[in-house]
Task: structure prediction
Amino acid sequence: MDVLTLLKSKNKCLERFLSLSQQFVAETPSADSLDMATLSQFEARREATLKAMDLFERKLSEAVSLLTPIEKTPELVAAVRAELERKEVLIHKILEVDLKIISKIEETKNQILREISSGKKNREVLSRFKSHWVPASGEGLDETL
Result:
């Protein structure tokens, strides 16, 4: 495979990565809609895309090292620069979407922490209520009779 084809393929992987991220954001509009199964699927898909990009990166490095000076034409250099610029644009878009994803995960984490804290407070209040109420009500007396 030639260098330009490999670069285009790698950029297609970046587009796929961006698409997966955008789809995840669209499917999880709030912290309530984010569950661990959805997050796990999302991570698995992104990981597979990252592996494909890594493969293209290795092939690309190999292809670049095999290029002869005669093959490095101004047209090739211009086309490669264009693909690299496209790559930069895609990476910036991915970063923007990833910030939204991180925000959703943080929001979900904070919501879970609030629920845990609320549950602990409720148990503490209930245990204080029981500990004062039971002896005062004479319930223990009924059990001994």
